[in-house]
Amino acid sequence: MGYGRSGEDIVVKEALKNLGVPICYEFDETDHFEGFLILSPSTVFIACTERHRSASVEKFIPYVLTLFSEIIYVDVVKVRRYMHADMLFGKINDHLALVYLPAFLKAWHITQNGRQEIGDFRQFMFERQMELISVSDEEQQKWACSFIPIDANTMLHYDIALNAQTKSQLYSKGIEIIEFHPDALLAGGGSLRCLTLMLLRA
């Protein structure tokens, strides 16, 4: 776990144990790793942020490949505003996502057969039938990529996160945006996705 989350893994492990949920992988005390995104039943998105240690990610990759057929791995600028993958990439549905590409340093496509550097990330995702809508620097700092997709055409988001241009692009794709002002949630110090736990998506 990263420095800012020290000790949380012990609490979560105990809670999962009490619930009868098995632990599939455990990091040790020297590891820094704060999560990843599941894009599909076969694809995982891992961003090596300031809350990760590259050695911890590399140690985790072989295990991930026993559960998923591929990994999209991105090395990210190491600053706080990019601390988690969902600060840079947010999947709305199987064919559309919000992204902040300026934070990406390098990206790789990893499978059991090896890894290949991704030169043009937007084109790479387009070839996988996923269109990327870029958010601005200001939007990224207001958690634009971190939202809750209610279903394939509906997203729940902070009313401060997206500008009119981005909303217009989303509306043109048939996406409904349910907005609310995050007064109480901002006190929790996290983005909308970080502060929620989806148990079942319709």
TrEMBL record:
<protein>
    <submittedName>
        <fullName>Arginine deiminase</fullName>
        <ecNumber>3.5.3.6</ecNumber>
    </submittedName>
</protein>
<dbReference type="Pfam" id="PF02274">
    <property type="entry name" value="ADI"/>
</dbReference>
<keyword id="KW-0378">Hydrolase</keyword>
<dbReference type="GO" id="GO:0016990">
    <property type="term" value="F:arginine deiminase activity"/>
</dbReference>
